[in-house]
Amino acid sequence: MRNDARALLEKLSRQDFRYKQFEDPYTDMELWPVFEALLKDERISGKGERREEAPRAPEPRRPAAQARRAPQSAKPAGSFLGQYSAPQPSPANEPGRAQTEAVDLRRFLGKLGQAKS
Amino acid sequence: MTVISVHSPKGGSGTTLIAARLAMSFAGRGRPVTLIDYTRQDTLKLHFGMVPSQTIQPWQGAEADAPVIGGVRLVKGYGSRMAAEQLVQDFSGGDTSQLFIFDISSSNLELRHEISRFADFNLCVLEPSPADLTSLTLLDEGQSIRELQNFGVVLNRVDEQYKLSRHCRRFLAELLGEQYFGIVRRDEAVNEALAQFEVLEKFAPQSVVLRDVTALTNMIEAHLKGEPGVSTEGADTATRRAV
Ligand SMILES: Nc1ncnc2c1ncn2[C@@H]1O[C@H](COP(=O)(O)OP(=O)(O)OP(=O)(O)O)[C@@H](O)[C@H]1O
Ligand SMILES: [Mg+2]
After folding, report:
1. Is B67 helix (H, G, I), strand (E, B) or coil?
2. Ligand 2 centroid to B35 CA: how many Å?
3. Which CATH fold would you assign to the domain B2-124+137-153+188-229?
4. Could you give the dihedral angle defined by the CA atoms of residues B66, B67, B70 and B74, in that order, rounded to the nearest 10 degrees?
5. Is B204 helix (H, G, I), strand (E, B) or coil?
6. Interface of B with A (CB under 8 A)
7. How does pLDDT run across B25-83, given as a tens digit for each residue?
8. What pTM did the predictor assign?
9. What are the boundaries of the region Disordered (chain A) (predicted)?
10. Ligand 1: which of B36, B44, B135, B190 to mutate, most ligand atoms within 8 Å of CB?
């Protein structure tokens, strides 16, 4: 049991609670369409470039603060991604980029599926 | 002198709570903090134990009030004739250890933009909901979210018993990488404290909100010092690291 839960139960001096920890097993991750839509939206992820390689503009005030880690390379997509076909063109994306985005989306979701909680 | 802006493209996601808690958290670490309220609601003061009838007049230079509560100086920016940057100059008085935190209305994207030009860090508060995530698309007209500098997102009112809450958290962590600044969990004690006109530390010292904001403060401090991000897992990892 987590410490904060134990502290709370003690504070309330209640015994009639059932404790359940909501860990996220990897299989629990669902591919909500809103995630997919936002992932493909260039106002979120930027134009054209792959998310992992997006260059950053020079920082005006605090260059040191931007020492960012190199992102880990994406792992292959998990099996649950089989349900994804090529994405539909959306208003924010030209249809011509659909193919690259499909790859990026799969890479992204693959990472999501394999991310440690 | 350090400037932090707190804003959300979506109203009601907890900007005011986070701004108030961050101010108290930094003040608790010995930093002189000025918290500038740029919202119309006038509810920021409640987080400091003030009552509805107590008002703070908009700052117009001399002769306005700016009470100091728990080490935080409260300034009303909304309704002030002065520009935000000038307000900072007025109060800093050349003291470089001063920290300024802005609570900005969700609809005031213009002010968000103006302050982001001189802010050292811009915190965006979202709730784990489709509407909040979608509102990110309209945050900045010029740049995509991933290109924004000195920008971070904290997910507020997370409740892990709900699937979508858990999934939004994982999604944002992965999507944003080092722009992800973790979570602040939902705790009804926040509202109960306000109803009692008490500060949260006194009303509910065990509140998860206090723990989560401590972790958030650690992450922001690390960012301000120019340290590389700790992890895409955000505040949770920062907590572990701080132990
Ligand atoms: N982590 C939390 N746990 C519980 N209640 C919360 C939490 N965060 C915010 N609240 C409550 O949710 C409500 C909205 O929060 P708040 O006023 O901070 O949002 P806001 O983004 O500033 O809203 P607005 O856009 O109107 O300025 C308040 O009643 C607040 O007490
Ligand atoms: Mg507010």
Report:
1. coil
2. 13
3. Rossmann fold (3.40.50)
4. -30
5. coil
6. 118, 120, 130, 133-134, 136-138, 140, 143-147, 149-150, 160-161, 163-164, 166-167, 170-171, 173-175, 177-178, 206, 208, 211, 223-229, 232-233
7. 999 999 999 999 999 999 999 999 999 999 999 988 765 678 999 999 999 999 998 89
8. 0.78
9. 43-117
10. B190
Q: Is residue A98 part of a domain?
A: yes
Q: Is the CB of B190 under 6 A from ligand 1?
A: yes
**pLDDT tens sequence for chain A (117 residues):** 888 888 888 888 777 777 777 665 555 667 799 999 999 999 998 876 544 444 444 444 443 433 443 333 333 333 333 333 333 334 443 444 444 555 566 677 666 666 544
Residue A18 lies in a domain: no
Number of domains in chain A: 1
d(CA B143, CA B136): 12
CA proximity to B9, closest of B141, B185, B120 = B141
Q: Is residue A13 part of a domain?
A: no
Domain that holds residue A30: 25-116
List the one residue out of A83, A101, A84 whose CA is nearest residue A92: A101
Q: How far apart are CA A95 and CA A91, in angstroms?
A: 9
> Complex ipTM, two decimals?
0.86
Indicate if the alpha-carbon torsion angle B158, B161, B163, B169 is positive or negative: positive
User: A62 CA to middle of ligand 1, Å?
Assistant: 31
Closest CA in chain A for residue B210: A4
